Amino acid sequence: MRIVAGQFRELTQGDLAFARQIGCAGITVNKPDFDSPAWVDFLLTQFRAAAGPRPPRRRWSAMELIQLRSAVEAHGLALECIEGVPANWLDKAMLGLPGAEEQIADFQATIRAMGQAGIKVLGYNWIPDGVWRTAKAAHGRGGALVTGYDDALGQRVATGTLPARDDARMWANWERFITAVLPVAEEAGVKLSLHPDDPPVPVLDGVARIFRSEDAFARAMGFADSPMHGIAFCTGTFAEIGADPMMRALRRFARAGRIHYLHLRSVHGTLPRFAEAFIDEGHVDSVAVLRELLDAGFDGFVIDDHVPHLTDDTVWGHRGRAHATGHIAGILRALRSNPTGGPA
Ligand SMILES: [Mn+2]
């Protein structure tokens, strides 16, 4: 099990040094827009023309992924995973709209490019309208900024921008998608890792959120039953349902070897109303989670997921992430030196 610094949307050399300094073995990157000035600057892609014509911006090229990986490895870090593609690369596939087949073909090309670049894990989700929160306020410990969600408010929102989709349609669209992309992932040696729908409520804005329960993941793992298809297990999202359901699902899928990586964060409260919390409070027991993973022989990586926003912190959350990562590292060290949990 490796501890990794998660969810960089942009990167600087300083970010990579920081990840190494706090003891991480690698990093993950979230939905990178390689055309943005920050990424062009980081990857020095003014030289990209030499590598051939630019690909359509519905996929990543092997060359830019190799450049990214090399930059990360220069700091002694592994590029463990890219967590998700931009939402508008898969929205038509999720909703079953015209253009779905082209999006799936582009996603297949991205998987092949990931394989060529030797990046082994690609996270994805099945929520065309993303993660929802109804609050971001200074209600965390000591006035830290935390996000929260209240379903009584969330259910009032009807944007009219997405077509209504029920569970059956969303499942059918997902089955079409995974049937098309999983063989490509298997051939490319790239793991596809499904993150639960956050918040895990039945429907938002007219669109069903199908990956909201242990049962749904059991169905998905059964339908796409391959070591190349697994779970981006988010303790926070599962704990928004409850601490016990989260631990049950964790045990089941960890022992089945279907968890590729872990988002370790905590929450106060459960649906219909919850707020994010520091990793050392709330009802996610980080010690029990990590002990379960060790017992199951988990060989993936753990990241801290989103963290409360501390005083004077950066957008990425260097302070909050240092706190969460240190907490995880301390627990792992204690468990590994005293695995039975008894007196040392
Ligand atoms: Mn998560």
TrEMBL record:
Belongs to the mannonate dehydratase family. GO terms for molecular function: ferrous iron binding; manganese ion binding; mannonate dehydratase activity. It catalyses: D-mannonate = 2-dehydro-3-deoxy-D-gluconate + H2O. This is mannonate dehydratase. Pathway: Carbohydrate metabolism; pentose and glucuronate interconversion. The keyword Iron applies. Keywords: Iron, Lyase, Manganese. The lineage of its organism: Bacteria, Pseudomonadati, Pseudomonadota, Alphaproteobacteria, Acetobacterales. Its cofactor is Mn(2+); Fe(2+).
